[in-house]
């Protein structure tokens, strides 16, 4: 009884405070409410020769005239003459002087393997240290990043030609189609700036506008303490942020000459091609914010910060792609101006810490992805079930309800793999416990689900109920793992369990302790088929400023929450991931969904886009949100299918499934106050249409799994913006309705409701327009009708239709037998779909492994390449990534275990010739011949039952006779 009371009181407190507010976003800061942002802007406005604000009316006119004719101050930072020196390890060091306060800032430029360079800057003699640990958590090799390039590979020159000294460092070459070009860094002494060039073309510039500003620590004096703008405290609404270290911040401009589009810096509910934030009609009037907060039911088309932050920006034009990672875990604001065509200027300002920028030098999109993966790691390779369909609701309230839902999936012949338990399964939001009344026998529940190889995901949030009898709280307190306030007391805030403590996950001891809770002995009632959901890890605190931890809370080594804020979600996610790896004697690949994230989170599991709403705007914005995350390394990502808040209507619900099957992470989820949203909840014809959509996802699982392999090995995104696949077609650079899944599937989702042309008529279809990318032929996935690249197609899409196209030149593997869960498909045969290009050729691949252990790291997999040309399909297994240590025994054992798995059908689409027979020669079997048929509906050729093994090399040749 009291448990329910607790939750309803908390929920209503939460709703009163945050939901029933017209001006939702006023719960969160805008840039002018941040003193360090104001100071940085005031500084750049004082020195800048141009003004990038958007001003309207008479005031605007006066302001623009004033700006034009007013005199500008000289920038206060100067590069110290003759300070530029190369070190033995190939790094370059120099100093910049704050001429106003006579404070030196030390710079270090390093070159890393993989053609990445990095620039770090900090105070030379700091009064107190500045936070510089973010890289240690974000980078896969630790704080220093990928190994340094051999110094002999760097060529340094210095010159002074009628002007300032210029230092050039050549560190690589690239062949971007026009012969070999060198990659260089150029440091100019006055006005000082750092530039990255390919050949003679400048691709990225740092401090070209002299926005560099490094607010150094100062002694506290009576005068500066009282100075509100520069002071030791600041207020937002009723909250005061005391700053015992005083103000500090860091800012600089990063400019991309020759570019019109920049992307990335998720998470925002904004278009894929980032909008200008200053000085442009149709742009935003606020900078993009990177500050992880619990922004449920967020506004669509906004630069406000959401649950996760990846401070990686990509710029792309027809010649180059480049990426800049701003390694700060503090709150960061990013302004974007596009004053001149073909130049994007960005201005980055963070509240604290050092300046640490890593540049992925490209020049192709795939190079940037590989470089970023080298720096921050690749996607944790998921278990096979985790890329199938997941069913969630806040909450399935009892074991009985879960059992009912489970059998309804079977009654409706809809496959699913995972049922999710939201907060109500716990004993009063004490994580790692069960509500014994409503979930009396978790073991029975897990056994039941295991009969169909289904899994249970239980939510584990980071807030710990303050309860002296709760073992997690007791231990956290005893061990000193709770985050403290400024006075050294354990901080307590409000969240689902009522008064809650928060663990300091920056402390490795606390992380290790947390991991242990996932052992089956401690989390009683969890089993090998229990996986985990980490929610509220921004960290969410209902009764604090911006619904999160106060900035001056104290972490290990005295760092403040403001320094580490954007890392919190990732560190919690990481601890859970590491705990799951350790819980079984033969480790299985963990599955942990996280709401909050940072650069590098891809190493620990999927994320989702948080609390969206059941409306068309949220459906549509989920596409650029998934894509922006994807290009920033967060490949395993999805949005709540069906919309979290509100009911929506059956049409929206159905369209959402038809889009959701193309999200890398595919989960239906909804709020406790929304209507039922299981796939059958809207009745017919919706149930059948949704079933077909989910079945399509299951059929294509082999294609998806192979894409995840590439993501895990080379950092290639799974859901891809069109420009990634067609980097030389500028008309596609801002496209964010159409997208690719892998390099073969073009998805054209329906993002608007049907609208009848005549107001009395009832619409029966939606109309969409698809401009097919050039230089390819495109086949309708269902009818096999061919469309030429460059063609613009306007078509009706009936509710039962899913517009998807396949790029000619692809080979796509599927599994066509319907089962109740993906694991039950493991021994099923495959079908290969060959879609020929204009030359009659196609390529593809298929990756398979045991779907759950880490044996794939030792060679326990099959990765076949398929090539079709000149009427012949060749399958060969030659795809071992470099640097992999193969264990022959593991490899052979796995091969033997899949020997029996066959290719049961080959479909050739767009093949212009006649073929009656297919001749099969199998490396480990007798040669044979089968008939070739023509599909009466699509006209495509079908080779039935070639019966070749996935574990062999073989060829199949089509012949007229
Ligand atoms: C907030 C999450 O975003 C949502 O998905 C979940 O259902 C609720 N917390 C309750 O746990």
TrEMBL record:
Domain of life: Eukaryota
Family matches, as InterPro entries: DUF5110, Gal_mutarotase_sf_dom, GH, Glyco_hydro_31_C, Glyco_hydro_31_N_dom, Glyco_hydro_31_TIM, Glyco_hydro_b
GO biological process, one term: carbohydrate metabolic process
Ranges where the Glycoside hydrolase family 31 TIM barrel domain occurs: 380-707
Record-annotated Glycoside hydrolase family 31 N-terminal domain positions: 107-335
Keywords associated with the record: Endoplasmic reticulum, Glycoprotein, Glycosidase, Hydrolase, Signal
An example Gene Ontology molecular-function term: carbohydrate binding
Pathway: Glycan metabolism; N-glycan metabolism
Domain Glycosyl hydrolase family 31 C-terminal, chain residue ranges per copy: 715-812
Tagged with keyword Protein biosynthesis: no
Entry's localization field: Endoplasmic reticulum
GO cellular component, one term: endoplasmic reticulum
Main localization, broad class: endoplasmic reticulum
Domain DUF5110: 830-896
Membrane-crossing residue ranges in chain numbering: none
Family: Belongs to the glycosyl hydrolase 31 family.
PANTHER family on file: ALPHA-GLUCOSIDASE, BCDNA.GH04962
The name this protein goes by in its record: Glucosidase II subunit alpha
Organism from which the protein derives: Mycoemilia scoparia
């Amino acid at each position: 009884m009291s448990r329910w009371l607790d939750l309803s009181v908390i929920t209503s407190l939460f709703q009163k405070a945050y939901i029933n507010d017209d001006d939702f976003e006023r719960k969160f800061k805008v840039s002018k409410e941040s003193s360090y942002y104001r100071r940085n802007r005031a500084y750049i406005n004082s020195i800048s020769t141009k003004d990038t604000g958007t001003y309207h009316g008479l005031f605007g006119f006066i302001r623009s005239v004033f700006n034009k004719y007013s005199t500008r101050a000289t920038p206060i930072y100067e590069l110290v003459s003759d300070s530029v020196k190369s070190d033995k390890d190939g790094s370059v060091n120099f100093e910049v002087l704050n001429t106003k306060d006579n404070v030196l800032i030390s710079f270090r430029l390093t070159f890393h393997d993989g053609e990445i360079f990095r620039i770090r800057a900090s105070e030379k003699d700091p009064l107190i240290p500045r936070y510089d640990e973010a890289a240690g958590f974000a980078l896969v090799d630790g704080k220093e990043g990928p190994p340094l390039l051999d110094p002999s590979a760097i060529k340094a020159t210095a010159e002074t030609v009628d002007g300032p000294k210029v230092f050039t460092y050549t560190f690589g070459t690239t062949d971007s189609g026009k012969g070999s070009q060198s990659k260089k860094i150029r440091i100019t002494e006055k006005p000082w700036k750092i530039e990255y060039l390919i050949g003679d073309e400048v691709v990225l510039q740092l401090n070209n506008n002299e926005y560099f500003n490094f607010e150094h620590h100062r002694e506290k004096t009576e005068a500066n303490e009282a100075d509100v703008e520069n002071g030791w405290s600041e207020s937002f609404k009723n909250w005061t942020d005391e700053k015992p270290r005083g103000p500090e911040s860091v800012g600089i401009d990063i400019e991309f000459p020759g570019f019109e589009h920049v992307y990335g810096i998720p998470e925002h509910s904004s278009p894929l091609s980032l909008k200008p934030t200053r000085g442009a009609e149709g742009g935003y009037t606020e900078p993009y914010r990177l500050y992880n907060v619990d922004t449920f039911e967020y506004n669509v088309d906004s630069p406000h910060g959401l649950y996760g932050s990846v401070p990686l920006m990509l710029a792309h034009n027809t010649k180059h792609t480049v990426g800049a990672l701003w390694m700060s875990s503090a709150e960061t604001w990013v302004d974007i101006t596009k004053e001149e065509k073909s130049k994007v200027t960005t201005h980055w300002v963070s509240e604290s810490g050092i300046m640490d920028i890593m540049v992925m030098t490209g020049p192709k999109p795939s190079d940037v992805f590989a470089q970023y993966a080298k720096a921050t790691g690749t996607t944790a390779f998921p278990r096979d079930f985790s890329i199938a369909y997941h069913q969630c609701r806040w909450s399935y309230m009892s074991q009985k309800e879960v059992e009912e839902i489970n059998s309804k999936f079977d009654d409706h012949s809809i496959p699913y793999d995972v049922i999710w338990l939201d907060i109500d399964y716990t004993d009063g939001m004490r994580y790692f416990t069960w509500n014994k009344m409503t979930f009396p026998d978790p073991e029975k529940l897990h056994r039941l689900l295991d009969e169909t190889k289904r899994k249970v995901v239980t939510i584990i949030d980071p807030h710990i109920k303050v309860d002296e009898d709760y073992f997690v709280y007791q231990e956290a307190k005893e061990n000193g793992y709770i985050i403290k306030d400024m006075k050294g007391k354990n901080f307590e805030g409000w969240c689902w369990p009522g008064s809650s403590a928060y663990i300091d996950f920056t402390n490795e001891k606390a992380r290790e302790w947390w991991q242990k809770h996932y052992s089956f002995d401690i989390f009683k009632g969890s089993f090998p088929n229990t996986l985990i959901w980490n929610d509220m890890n921004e960290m969410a605190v209902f009764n604090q400023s911006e619904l999160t931890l106060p900035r001056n809370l104290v972490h290990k080594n005295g760092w403040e929450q403001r320094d580490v804020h954007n890392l919190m979600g990732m560190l919690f996610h990481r601890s859970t991931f590491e705990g799951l790896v350790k819980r079984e004697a033969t480790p299985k690949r963990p599955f942990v969904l996280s709401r909050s994230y940072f650069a590098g989170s891809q190493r620990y599991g999927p994320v989702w886009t948080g609390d969206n709403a059941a409306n068309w705007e949220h459906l549509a914005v989920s596409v650029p949100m998934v894509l922006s995350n994807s290009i920033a390394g967060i490949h395993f990502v999805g949005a709540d299918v069906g919309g979290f808040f509100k009911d929506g209507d059956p049409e929206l619900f159905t369209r959402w499934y038809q889009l959701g099957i193309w999200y890398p992470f595919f989960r239906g989820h909804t709020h406790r106050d929304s209507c039922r949203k299981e796939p059958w909840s809207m009745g017919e014809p919706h149930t059948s249409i949704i079933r077909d959509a989910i079945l399509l996802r299951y059929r294509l699982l082999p294609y998806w799994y192979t894409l995840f392999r590439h993501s895990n090995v080379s950092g290639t995104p799974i859901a891809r913006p069109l420009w990634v696949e067609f980097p030389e077609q500028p008309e596609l650079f801002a496209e964010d309705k159409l997208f690719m899944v892998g390099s073969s599937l073009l998805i054209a989702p329906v993002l608007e409701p049907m609208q009848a042309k005549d107001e009395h008529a009832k619409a029966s279809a939606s109309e969409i327009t698809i401009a097919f990318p050039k230089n390819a032929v495109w086949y309708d996935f269902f009818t096999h009708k061919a469309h030429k690249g460059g063609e613009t197609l306007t078509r009706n899409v009936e509710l039962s239709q899913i517009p998807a196209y396949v790029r000619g030149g692809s080979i796509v593997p599927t599994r066509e037998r319907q089962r109740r869960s993906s694991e039950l498909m493991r021994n099923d045969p495959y079908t290969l779909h060959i879609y020929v290009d204009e030359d009659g050729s196609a390529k593809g691949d298929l990756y398979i492994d045991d779907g759950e252990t880490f044996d794939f790291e030792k060679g326990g997999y099959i990765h076949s390449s398929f090539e079709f040309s000149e009427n012949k399909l060749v399958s060969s297994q030659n795809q071992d990534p470099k640097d992999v240590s193969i264990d022959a025994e593991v490899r052979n054992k796995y091969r033997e275990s899949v020997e029996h798995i066959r290719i049961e059908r080959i479909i050739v689409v767009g093949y212009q010739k006649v073929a009656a027979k297919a001749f099969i020669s199998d490396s480990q079997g007798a040669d044979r011949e089968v008939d070739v048929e023509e599909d009466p509906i699509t006209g495509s050729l079908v080779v039935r039952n070639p019966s070749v093994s996935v574990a062999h090399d073989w060829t199949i040749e089509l012949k007229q006779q």
